[in-house]
Design brief:
β3, α9 and β4 form a beta-alpha-beta unit. The protein is elongated. By secondary structure, it is mainly alpha-helical. Strands 1-2 form a two-stranded antiparallel ribbon. A two-stranded parallel sheet has the order 3-4. Strands 5-8 form a two-stranded antiparallel sheet. It is built from 20 helices and eight strands. α3 packs across α7.
């Protein structure tokens, strides 16, 4: 091979290696956090007499100029810089000269990236938490309008007992409330500053970690430098929190897809969130809920990916952790847009009350009420009442009726034990009465649902 070809191959390999090694094209997402951390670090160095006041002012002014250049699109990102930290520092030094070279005193890129990334995760935890609160409020508002609207409650996707639709919506409000609390808990647990940990063992410079901690809004400095620079638990937590929220989003998306089908027709989604078929003009496809359901797998993958990266790393920092960011950035963007879209889907959906209520007459939803009546009023063992109720269901099937539609004579004819049954059993089997009979705490009665709604409203006011 000629020298010229050898050189071309070396240049090609060098370019490939640069691309493989660099993170600048994705970690540029952290530019604002990097600059914020650097300003706090420079201010602390000045307070400690490590930088002069003029040097610190020049650094801060220069960093703000770099920030403006990035946000205006003037800044040109290049693989030459490898990562966002070197890109910002190099441009800063071009702008202000020698003082720019002093900025990195008493820190390492190890604690710098840990600080930047943690700031990003903390900020996103708060913003996602805020979105989840809005989503909870939307479900509560829908629930408030439907505390008397009957819908078949299901187990195993089979008709089980009558519920009100408001109660069903509150199940999702509870899920997303837990998600809100999960992000809140993670924020508190991870609100500690890595800055000052340096490479892995701290620094001999006379720094003040409490000062940078306060400037960046952290509760306190992290307690152990080696653990700090290698720790990505905070990133795993936000990925887990997002995955759990997306699982809840996927569950309501699945119900929306089912409910909007011809077989159910419980809800109709706004045309904005459904599309027509490319070949069948009569079809209206629930594309948006399907995408919400599908994107859940994407965020699961990001969580498992980072778990896999971290599982075999020796202390302290390793280059492997460069792979921690893209999955987090992707999952954050996915959850942000997913919550926003789901919120609008729920706000704009049309509830078909008549279809829901007519569906409650399929599957003998009030059968358990007959068994409960026999236990409470006749003192029967539940298992005996259960088998007697099965006979009544068989009778209803033979008459092509729902159990709630049977007359007292038809009920009495189903089993010898029922020949003297009181007339009031007919009232017990009424679907609306059945729903409202469930007055235990957390139950589906209109009364209990309205109590739950009021509790949610208080929670929304206080958070």
């Amino acid at each position: 091979m000629s020298n010229q070809n050898n050189q071309i191959l070396k240049n090609t390999n060098a370019q490939i290696l640069d691309e493989f090694n660099a993170s600048i094209m994705f970690d540029k997402e952290l530019y604002a956090q990097d600059i914020k951390g650097s300003i706090a670090h420079s201010a602390m160095l000045c307070e400690q007499g490590i930088l002069t006041k003029d040097e610190q002012e020049a650094i801060e002014k220069g960093l703000l100029q770099v920030k403006n250049e990035i946000e205006s699109g003037e800044f040109k990102f290049s693989l030459v810089y490898e990562d966002i930290h070197m890109a910002v520092e190099s441009r800063l030094t071009e702008i202000i000269g020698e003082p720019g070279k002093r900025l990195h005193t008493a820190r390492s890129r190890n604690d710098q990236v840990a600080t930047d990334f943690r700031l990003y995760v903390q900020e996103k935890s708060l913003s996602i938490k805020s979105q989840l609160k809005e989503l909870v409020e939307t479900f509560v508002n829908v629930a408030s309008k439907h505390t008397k609207t009957l819908i078949p409650g299901m187990t195993h996707l089979q008709h089980a007992q009558p519920l009100n639709f408001g109660y069903h919506m509150l199940a999702y409000a509870n899920m997303f409330k837990r998600d809100y609390e999960r992000f809140e808990s993670s924020y508190e647990r991870n609100n500690y500053s890595p800055l000052g940990s340096a490479a892995l063992a701290g620094t001999p410079h006379n720094i003040n970690r409490d000062s940078t901690c306060e400037k960046l809004g952290f509760k306190a400095p992290t307690a152990h430098a080696m653990d700090t620079v290698s720790d990505r638990d905070f990133a795993l937590e936000i990925l887990f929190n997002i995955s759990t929220s997306m699982m809840h989003i996927s569950r309501i998306a699945e119900e929306l897809i089912t409910w909007s089908s011809y077989e159910f027709q419980f809800v109709r989604m706004s045309d904005e969130y459904a599309t027509t078929s490319s070949i069948m003009p009569q079809k209206k496809n629930p594309d948006v809920p399907e995408l919400l359901r599908g994107k859940t797998g994407r965020v699961y993958g990001n969580l498992i990916s980072l778990f896999t990266v971290m599982k075999g790393l020796p202390l302290a920092y390793n280059k492997d952790t460069q792979e921690d960011k893209e999955g987090v950035f992707d999952s954050v963007k996915t959850i942000e847009i997913s919550i926003s879209i789901l919120n609008e889907v729920i706000k704009t959906m049309i509830v078909n009350v008549d279809k829901m209520e007519s569906a409650c007459k399929i599957g003998h939803l009030s059968a358990t009420d007959l068994a409960d009546f026999l236990v409470q009023k006749k003192g029967m063992p539940f298992r005996t009442a259960y088998y007697i109720t099965k006979d009544v269901v068989t009778c209803a099937n033979s008459l092509n009726k729902d159990i709630s539609e049977l007359s007292i004579d038809e009920i009495r004819s189903a089993n010898d034990e029922l020949k003297e049954i009181d007339d009031e059993i007919v009232m017990y089997l009424d679907l609306r009465n059945s729903m409202n009979a469930r007055t235990s705490f957390g139950g589906t009665s209109t009364q209990q649902t309205e109590i739950q709604i009021e509790n949610f409203k208080k929670w929304l006011e206080n958070n």
